[in-house]
């Protein structure tokens, strides 16, 4: 009979999938600031929850409750914080998050700030508060726990400007960063070609970032692409951590299609009543 581990820990299935070379799809609850977002994400078949505290109206309490709801369901809670609010990232990790996304990492100096902020010594300078939710608020001795969390927490830096693309070789070389995610919406905006996902400059950026990831053992991510064909194009070129979309976009798309279908029925020729199912 198998015995339970002495110090049980909730795993990080998204990081495991990525390291196995498997696709990890993210769902972004933007308006759904509720613990139900994790259940919806699981039901829809997503691997990670992208809790966007950069653009969404989330409090620290909202973030923590959504993370805690996600952990036992096997959907990884990952939080994006503002680039100048790294302290919010450490609080998210202390209170349920198993990964962070940091936007606008344009320089290797900023990448090192990120690694220092979110890795425990000797790899970084993160402060220890108390055993986090990943250890069920218990866990092994502090040094052992810190080493495990350094391995299991996913740290993602976003590449969103031409400056970041130009510096990507040095950014990718920074230890402690697991994923480089191209924020394609902001990248096209800063390039002066908003929404042109397939523009030659965007394709070149993906090639350069992908090559830097391969060279330095990093994983490639993508977000902000509103076209399935170009999403497929970049996925086939190595993007594994994929932000699929937000509740906002999904509700508008599905709701619009449903309304259009029903309105098209107005004035249509009468049809026979559907046959009732036999019990």
What's the SSE blueprint?
Layout: H1 13-19, E1 24-28, H2 36-44, E2 48-52, H3 60-70, E3 76-80, H4 86-94, E4 99-102, H5 108-118, H6 142-152, E5 154-159, H7 162-166, H8 168-172, E6 179-183, H9 184-190, H10 200-216, E7 219-223, H11 228-235, E8 239-246, H12 247-264
Parallel strand pairs: 1-2, 1-8, 2-3, 3-4, 4-5, 5-6, 6-7, 7-8
Overview of this structure, please?
By secondary structure, this protein is an alpha/beta fold. The chain has a single domain (13-252), classed as Alpha-Beta Barrel (TIM Barrel), CATH 3.20.20.60. It has helices at 13-19, 36-44, 60-70, 86-94, 108-118, 142-152, 162-166, 168-172, 184-190, 200-216, 228-235, 247-264; strands at 24-28, 48-52, 76-80, 99-102, 154-159, 179-183, 219-223, 239-246. Strands 1-2-3-4-5-6-7-8 form an 8-stranded parallel beta barrel, surrounded by 9 helices. Helix 2 (36-44) packs across helix 3. It is globular and about 75 Å long.
Summarize the structure.
The chain has one domain (13-252): TIM Barrel (Alpha-Beta Barrel).
Rg (C-alpha, Å): 21 Å
Structural class: alpha/beta
Number of helices: 12
**On the 0-100 scale, what is the average pLDDT?**
94
The CATH class name reads Alpha Beta
Number of domains: 1
Q: What is the element string, with H for helices and E for strands?
A: HEHEHEHEHHEHHEHHEHEH
Strand content: 15-25%
Shape: globular
Distance between the termini: 45 Å
CATH structural architecture? Alpha-Beta Barrel
List keywords for this structure.
alpha/beta, 8-stranded parallel barrel, globular, TIM Barrel, 279 residues
